[in-house]
Records
---
Amino acid sequence: MHESADVATGPTAADTEEMITAELAIALQLAGVRWRPQPGDRFAIPQPGLHGQVFTISDMVVEPHEYPTGTVLGFNGTTEWALDSVDQEQAVWLPREDQLRELLGATFRRLERAEDGYRVVVTGAEAGDELVHTAVSAAEAYGLALLDLVSRATDVLHP
């Protein structure tokens, strides 16, 4: 990390209602889900002193800068603490519910409200099969469905 500019951040109650957990975000990253940073995207930096901090890509505060060596997330002067930029590989994307649903693509069937939260139903490997993923939040249920989908695809490619 390069230090110099100040950055203000932190999730609000509205932000955390629809966020997946950092653990699920890391699992998605490790499973191979790729991120191309866009304005409005949220991310975390899993390093001591930054636990629980959520950053948002914004043309005003955090901008992705493309270089031949990779993407760098540049911080543009705010007031809480000093941070200039961080390599994208050091960040963990916290996709929104709509982004997770989009990544599920044609496998997505429906979102259902359940007693214990939400259920995301996706198509299975066989015609007519449905897989159900349940979580406290809709975003987390979408994330679990995506992790399962990517893991199944990876298992097929690399048994």
---
Amino acid sequence: MVIAFLRLVLFVILDWESKIHLFAITIIGFLLWGTFVEPHTIAVQKRYFDLPCKAKIALISDLHLGLYKKQGFLKRIIKKINRLHVDYIFIAWDLSYYPKINKLHELFWPLKDSHVPVYVVLGNHDVEKPGHPIRKELISAIQATGAHLLNNNIVHLSGFTLVGLGEYRSHEDDVSLLENTQSLLPVIVLTHNPQTIKKYTERHHVDLTLCGHTHWWQIRLPFIEKGVGLFSSTLKHSSRGYLTHKMHNYFITWWIGEVGLPMRFFSPPTIDVLYIWEKRRTLSKKIKDQLKWYRDKISDVFTVKTL
């Protein structure tokens, strides 16, 4: 607000030549920030989900390592997640963006430094839609780090069941797995493309779906989100956050890498930290005891003692 006021004052008091210079400096400043600063920052967002289990999960997606971002940025991501003390790392990839095939093992090696298990699913760039035919080499590089690559697999973790589905664009997302989980625990689905959710029916038992892919405005201008239908339930390409489609809940994370231009505005790379636990429906014993103590004190004050 203060900056906008100062700009207005400068616009009024400066002559036209000075205004042109000011405008040029502002544009250059935005370009430098969007190219050299914001793409290399790492933000952290906390998210809370009410499920009958307890877990702390770091969720990231769309790293797009290769053309713009290299091994060093992934190393920073893993180092920052390690300091967050999560239980698991989930990656709803696109992993790659035109990387050098002979550099894949080196590119993803920082995953080996994770202090907790890493679970990943492939994205459209990883299955050549679009992209170079690197799937075999990419899978080899990921598995060499010790990360768990899920492609229509079910994993039973502490307190919940994780289902990793294949990529939507290559028709590998086998949602029939969700009919046969046979688990009394909450079911969390990890997939890349939120369009997979449209395949869900009443027979599919899913408590929460985690995904990426939408990118949510790499170059974003403030105050425009409502105009483009952000946070809608129609699975638009710009959607992000906690959403609902029919009877199913899903969460779309922000993305880490860049495609097209190596620039970002008001859209920093973000790690979403998911806090999952069951909300307490009743007061704890400690709070009940404290309330009883206050009630007894009040009762003593207003009680007329007789001799």
---
Amino acid sequence: MSKINKKIIIATGGTGGHVLPAVGLANYLNKIGFQTSITTDLRGTKYIDMSTIKEFKIIGGSRLNKKNFLFSLIKIFLAFLKSLLYLMKVKPKFIFGMGGYASFPVCMAAIFLRVPFIIYENNLLVGRANRILLPFAKKIFISYEEVAGIKTQYTEKKVVIGNIIREQILNNENIINDEPLTCLNILVLGGSQAAKVFAEILPKIFIKCCKQDIELKIFQQCLPEQISELKKIYKTNNLKNELFSFTFDIIKYYKIANLAITRAGSSALAELLNCRLPMIMVPLKLSAENHQFKNAQYFENKGYGIMLEESNVEKKLFDLLKNLNNNKKMIISVKENQEKYSDKKVFSNIKDLITNLFYEN
């Protein structure tokens, strides 16, 4: 048994939507006896909790930038060379590619060294990197059956596993807020781009709500440099609030909120869905291939939340919040739809699949 290769590299990077699921997966696999290490770019290190993840390697990478095409190509090639050296040193049994540009050079090195790999896609549209890698991947694990972008000849590689999210969320029923809806406790979420935009647009709408006697408490993620100014605005207008920047303890806010305003990144939506937290989704217009719009559209069609395009936030959000406050059955209806869905089996699904793929006798 001791001679069995239990080394797994999880290739990720970029945004929290790619890195946080990778961290959750690494923690689970380590717990059941595997030896995992994470590769990421420098940007992705922000989302790695060093208290739980001990083995990680900064590889780098780049998107293919049309304006600086040659420079980005050089960065990808250098990341590929670095990946080659790292794989030759670690000698993993297989690689788990989490999607995105930062996982791409590691998986390309795996192709060159003939190391098998799986790719994971949690968006409703397969990303560019995963589309390129799919012909060489052993399998593509997907969160939803309805995912688009997989060519017919590769459908046999598709395996629906659910969303990879933090075990604390999957295993902790106490996260779900079942308190009576007497006040709208709004959790505002988003990465750096969303935090900036939301901090500029949303306070005016929240203040308008207060003036209309709509009781609110705001829990808002914002950039560190925005906190001081936002505090002044909310204090001046007697609006209850708690402001925070990026935190590994986001679950505490999931517990006390009863409505979220969020971008439509797949990981954020999956966590809110499993926490039974109704959401107003504002897709990022500049997301690659407009994938956030597709995510939000899917969730809205399923009744898991309400989509509001960014161009309509200033025009329509106040009326939407007013309607939700006056008719709280709308929020209850969304929660009831969310209760029909669960990702609780995602890690056991992964365990069974990788055992069959790589450790069968």
